[in-house]
């Protein structure tokens, strides 16, 4: 049960379920209100109603990045047949800036998990140039790997994930 | 179980128990790769993603990342890593300790574990105290092994343990696909921040 790599993305299962193993090269800072998102942080849906402030690193303003926010545990972590659900998609983010400067292709939808504890993953890809990324037709059954392959985004450059469960209890026992 | 220092050891002395902050700070990235190997074979995790300072951000926002993490008394990253540890109860030895008692009489203990396994199988991932999470591993694995067998007798045994019968039927339906090749180790425990009310060390336990 112990893993060889202590990277929290591997421990949390994000690398494997959503992404391939990659090397982190760009800083990614996600802030919901006053809380900065760190890997594995527990956040309630009431705190993530509005989109977060995302700031990315890098040096050259001519490089553009794409941010994807997915939930790989829909509708429930024990039965994720709708994996993954696309919550947010922003492209053409120049380096050293944030999502306000990008092109929001799929608008932010605040996660409302009904059952279980869902992981929400924010992935940053590097674009080859300013490209048109077409929005997928629907939000569920999104595949980050295929999306990256389709638009030649390659491996991610940064990723962070956090946990989210419903506000008031687990929904109780239903027989 | 050894007292484990927090995850990110230095890249060089991977076998030492004591790690120094200087090498940690030097290995934290400013814009480069962040692969931090660790010494032991246990399960410490990184508290936060390693972006303490972003030199290109001097203009944009005045928010100090260290203050906004919400953790009290943070002066630097040195304080943060001590939080997700053994919970102060980690000793070097386990001599003679056969069964985790969970501070309960046997009937309550069994009921607690039955409830926890039911909930884990229902939701896929739950958050509970570390002692309970590590105590319930055995029973979750047992249930999945029963489901792997699949016969009527095993199904009835599972029905006698899990509180909700739909979960048993769902389990018996999907376990062969999901865990067909995996031999054991169907759960994963991720330690997390302590509970606010009583500072109990918490953990997520999830089906692999």
TrEMBL record, chain A:
Gene3D superfamilies documented for this protein: PEBP-like
Family that this chain belongs to: Belongs to the phosphatidylethanolamine-binding protein family.
SUPFAM superfamilies linked: PEBP-like
Native organism: Brassica campestris
PROSITE patterns membership: PBP
Record's protein name: Flowering locus T
TrEMBL record, chain B:
InterPro entries in the record: Ribosomal_bL17 (IPR000456), Ribosomal_bL17_sf (IPR036373)
UniProt key word S-adenosyl-L-methionine: no
Domain of life: Eukaryota
GO molecular function, one term: structural constituent of ribosome
SUPFAM superfamilies xref list: Prokaryotic ribosomal protein L17
Keywords recorded for this protein, A-Z: Ribonucleoprotein, Ribosomal protein
Matching Gene3D superfamilies: Ribosomal protein L17 (3.90.1030.10)
Cellular component GO terms, alphabetical: ribonucleoprotein complex; ribosome
Gene Ontology terms describing biological process: translation
Pfam families: Ribosomal_L17 (PF01196)
Family, similarity comment: Belongs to the bacterial ribosomal protein bL17 family.
Record-given protein name: Large ribosomal subunit protein bL17c
Species this protein is from: Brassica campestris (Field mustard)
């Amino acid at each position: 049960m112990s893993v060889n790599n202590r990277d929290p993305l591997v421990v949390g299962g994000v690398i494997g379920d959503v992404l391939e193993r990659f090397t982190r090269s760009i800083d990614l800072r996600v802030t919901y209100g006053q809380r900065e998102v760190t890997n594995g942080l527990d956040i309630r849906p009431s705190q993530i109603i509005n989109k977060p402030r995302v700031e990315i690193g890098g040096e050259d303003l001519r490089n553009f990045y794409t941010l994807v926010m997915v939930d790989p545990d829909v509708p429930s972590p024990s039965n994720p047949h709708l994996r993954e659900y696309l919550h947010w998609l922003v492209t053409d983010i120049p380096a050293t800036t944030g999502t306000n400067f990008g092109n929001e292709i799929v608008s932010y939808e605040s996660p409302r998990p009904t059952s279980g504890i869902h992981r929400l993953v924010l992935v940053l890809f590097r674009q080859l140039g300013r490209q048109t990324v077409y929005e997928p037709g629907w939000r569920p059954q999104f595949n980050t790997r295929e999306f990256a392959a389709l638009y030649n985004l390659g491996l991610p450059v940064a990723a962070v994930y956090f946990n989210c469960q419903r506000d008031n209890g687990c929904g109780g026992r239903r027989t | 179980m050894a007292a484990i220092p927090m995850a990110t050891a230095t890249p060089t002395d991977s076998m030492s128990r004591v790690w120094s902050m200087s090498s940690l700070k030097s290995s934290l990235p400013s814009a480069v790769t962040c692969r931090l190997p660790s010494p032991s074979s246990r399960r410490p995790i990184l508290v936060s993603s390693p972006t303490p300072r972003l030199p290109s951000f001097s203009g944009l926002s005045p928010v100090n990342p260290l203050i906004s993490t919400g953790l009290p008394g943070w002066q630097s990253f040195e304080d943060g890593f001590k939080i997700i540890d053994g919970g102060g109860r980690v000793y070097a030895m386990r001599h003679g300790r056969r069964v985790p008692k969970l501070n309960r009489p046997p009937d309550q203990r069994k009921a607690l574990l039955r409830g926890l396994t039911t909930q884990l199988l229902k939701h896929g991932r739950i958050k509970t105290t570390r002692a309970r999470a590590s105590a319930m591993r055995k029973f979750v694995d047992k249930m999945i092994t029963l489901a792997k067998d699949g016969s009527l007798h095993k199904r009835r045994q599972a029905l006698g343990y899990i509180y909700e019968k739909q979960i048993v039927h769902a389990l018996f339906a999907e376990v062969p696909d999901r865990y067909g090749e995996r031999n054991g180790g169907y759960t994963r425990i991720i330690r997390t921040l302590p509970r606010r009310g009583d500072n109990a060390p918490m953990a997520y336990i999830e089906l692999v």
